[in-house]
Amino acid sequence: MDPVTVLLSVVVILYLANVFNNRKKHKFKNFPPGPTPLPIIGNMHMIDMRKPHNTFIKMSEKYGPVFSVQLGTETFVILCGYDAVKDALINHAEEFSERPYTAMLDKTSRGYGILFAHGENWKVMRRFTLSTLRDYGMGKKSIENKIIDECECLMQTFRSYEGKPFNNMTIINAAVANIIVSIVIGHRFEYGDQNILRLMSLVNENVRIASGPMVRLYNSYPSLVGWLPGSHRKIVENSNETREFLRETFLKQEKELDINDQRNLIESFLVKQQEEKPESTLYYHDNNLLELVSNLCVAGMETSSTTLRWGLLLMMKYPDIQKKVQNEIERVIGSAQPQTEHRKQMPYTDAVIHEIQRFGEIVPGNLQHATSQDVTFRGYFIPKGTIVLPVLASALRDKAYFEKPEQFYPEHFLDSDGNFKKSDAFIPFSLGKRSCAGENLAKTELFVFFTTLLQNFTFQAPPGALLDLTPAIGFINAPLPHEICAVPRS
């Protein structure tokens, strides 16, 4: 067939698909309003595809806290502002508890694991994950001791630079990764170990390119875009390599398994696999194990390490705030090892850590949700299977809850007497049934790592360096590449 004819045929097919999608969307009365989409591309031309959450927050000023946009053939319902996000994820928790089915997720997670799983499979994996994380120390002294030990390794590495500039990304990534890896696999890696470096490289690249335009196009037009080169194919390659790395790891443990002496999450899963129950066959199979371990490594590694890197960058940017934290550490802890039990006596440090999380907006757009059933929400009808995006950044920047939402301002979490003050709109771990399973672990990591580092070092910018707080492009809001100077404190 003539290439021109093929091209015209493709355009016509895409146009008709777009028209059909629009008719399908508008046949429902009271579907959330939104901007008029163009043929084929929908509203893509209106959205900053590098940081779409910024566009959505701006759009909410015109269309309200519940509205819709179209990206290619996919229609999204967007929720902006803390009140709307909480209403959906808490008051209508079951209705908004699903994940969407997309071409990319079908190639990568395939519905297994915990992050992107569906229905009963997700419920079983989440129950197992929460229970097993608690068994291996989440919220207990044992995991805090692991974090303290890792802090010592991290400080030794920082000291080795003798106050000279270095990039902290790989080092902090490895330190934080070791905590979740020790729970999942049962041992830690040295920071220069090629296995952990490769695993981090795969995770970092996928996080960086996951929200790129080629992935969005692939989700809209998989049969047409799938054969093209681009980030959508790289994500699949990286996911497959990550699974192969994890497969080799847990196969070793399968040979050494002692059902009476389970040492980590993988072994607990393998024991479940051997139980003669219907659940063992239905849910505790290798596909779920591989994806679950991958999910935990990605979530446990990337978000906490990124938050810590923001914390050190912000301390360099605002040395007066850094000094106040260090003064509180000296007054409350002195030279003793910081522990979570100190947190209640350290309102300023606690406020600074909360503000780092709020200002950093580590996962600004949230993971996509989907409606598990038809639902009427705030007067709008949203049919089953609709993709829903509760924009976390819109809550973390909500002017009704934060006095200076665009600024780094620890006083957001302090009352007039200097006591720590909670804010309902502080939801960096999301809310409801799909909230972060490792929230308690992350909170412990952030407090112990942050206070230990500031107890032992003063962080400064290299001479002549400009400290840019613009986030890098990617699904996660990470700092741009930069160097730090960790000057030992006497």
Structure description:
The protein is of the alpha+beta class. Helices cover 52% and strands 7% of the residues. The protein contains 18 helices and 8 strands. The protein has helices at residues 3-26, 52-63, 82-91, 103-107, 119-135, 141-159, 169-184, 194-209, 213-220, 222-225, 231-255, 265-274, 278-282, 286-317, 319-332, 347-360, 392-396, 439-456, and strands spanning 66-71, 74-79, 369-370, 375-377, 380-382, 387-390, 457-460, 485-488. A 4-stranded mixed sheet has the order 1-2-6-3, with helices on both faces. It has a two-stranded antiparallel sheet with strand order 4-5. A hairpin with a 2-residue loop joins strand 4 (375-377) and strand 5. The longest helix is centred in the middle third of the chain and has 32 residues, at 286-317. The N and C termini lie far apart (77 Å).
The tally of strands reads 8
Mean pLDDT, to the nearest integer, reads 89
What string, H for helix and E for strand, traces the elements in order? Answer: HHEEHHHHHHHHHHHHHHEEEEHHEE
Provide the low-confidence segments as ranges.
1-13
- The proportion of residues in beta strands is 5-15%
Give the neighbour order of strands across the main sheet.
1-2-6-3
* Multimerization state: single chain
